[in-house]
């Protein structure tokens, strides 16, 4: 059986009419190279020759340097948005029409239809996303970070899907698994709808992205991670969720501190009602981290 053709047929069944949308795709010299030209012949495509040495840039689009090429292409060619896949194509990330990075958790409500559905998200997800899902008639369900946790929970609660800060997006219609290609199809579909309504991509994202000041995930090498986490929890206070590390909620914002599951880092994320308050909280947490 020609499994690749079956896979392409499924993806094409999900693909709407993208006429009029100007977009770029960066395959990062990885596995998306197999499929992007067959799925998106109208796109401006770069780095679609598979090469495990990754000559163009890191295969991890969370690295700002890995997004620079697409950001420049979007600005120079006047594209509506750009999509960057990671090396194994189970993740995708987006830059808007200005070439600015769109934080991946902000995209969850674009990737899955939320109305009347349970939508999974990880403990680092923006409060703006959680609020927006509720406003659209969905039920947000917080899960620990990582596909090993997200997929079983999705199947257990029969969630429509969801996503996480790292750019993984999960789909009930894709056996509960993650797919960068399917996520890109959904995002591009929402982008073309917005364009036909006279909106650029940053305007489409504004109701979610502009609610709070968000630090993104900050990483620290810490000798005694447990000590740092406990001291941050005691200092910050608030309502504590210990599903994965500590997510500490206050009316004016929240903070997440957790040990990485995959790297030797303590990870911190801060979101607040103002940039000034966010930076004040970061400084407070960093003081404790450096002491540890």
Structure description:
Strands 11, 12, 13, 14, 15 and 16 form a six-stranded antiparallel beta sheet that branches. The chain has helices at 3-14, 36-39, 64-77, 108-111, 127-135, 147-157, 180-196, 201-209, 225-236, 275-291; strands at residues 23-26, 44-46, 81-85, 92-95, 101-102, 118-122, 139-143, 161-163, 169-171, 177-178, 213-214, 218-220, 239-241, 246-250, 253-259, 266-272. The chain is α+β, with helices and mostly antiparallel strands. It folds into two domains: 1-211, 3-Layer(aba) Sandwich (Alpha-D-Glucose-1,6-Bisphosphate, Chain A, domain 3); 213-291, 2-Layer Sandwich (TATA-Binding Protein), CATH 3.30.310. Strand 14 and strand 15 form a beta hairpin. The protein is globular. Helix 9 packs across helix 10 (275-291). The model has no long low-confidence stretch (mean pLDDT 96).
């Amino acid at each position: 059986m020609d499994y690749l053709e079956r896979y392409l047929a499924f993806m094409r069944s999900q693909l709407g009419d993208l006429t009029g949308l100007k977009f770029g795709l960066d395959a990062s010299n990885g596995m998306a190279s197999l499929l992007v030209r067959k799925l998106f012949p109208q796109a401006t495509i770069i780095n679609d020759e598979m090469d495990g040495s990754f000559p163009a840039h890191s295969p991890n689009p969370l690295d700002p340097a890995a997004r620079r090429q697409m950001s420049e292409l979007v600005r120079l060619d006047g594209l509506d948005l750009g999509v960057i896949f990671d090396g194994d194509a189970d993740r995708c990330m987006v830059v808007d029409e200005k070439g600015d990075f769109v934080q991946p958790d902000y995209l969850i409500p674009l990737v899955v239809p939320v109305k009347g559905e349970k939508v999974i998200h990880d403990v680092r997800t923006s409060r703006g996303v959680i609020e927006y899902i509720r406003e659209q008639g969905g039920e947000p369900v917080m899960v620990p970070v990582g596909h090993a946790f997200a997929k079983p929970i999705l199947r257990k609660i029969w969630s429509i899907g969801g996503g996480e800060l790292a750019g993984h997006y999960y789909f009930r219609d894709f056996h509960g698994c993650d797919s960068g290609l399917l996520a890109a199809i959904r995002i591009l579909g929402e982008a073309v709808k917005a364009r036909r309504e006279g909106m650029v991509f940053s305007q489409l994202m504004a109701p979610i992205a502009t609610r709070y000041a968000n630090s993104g995930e900050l990483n620290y090498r810490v000798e005694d991670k447990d000590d740092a986490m406990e001291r941050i929890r005691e200092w910050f206070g608030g309502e504590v969720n210990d599903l994965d590390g500590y997510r500490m909620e206050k009316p004016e914002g929240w903070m997440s501190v957790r040990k990485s599951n995959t790297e030797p880092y303590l990870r911190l994320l801060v979101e607040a009602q103002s940039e000034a308050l966010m930076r004040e909280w970061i400084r407070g947490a960093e003081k404790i981290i450096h002491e540890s």
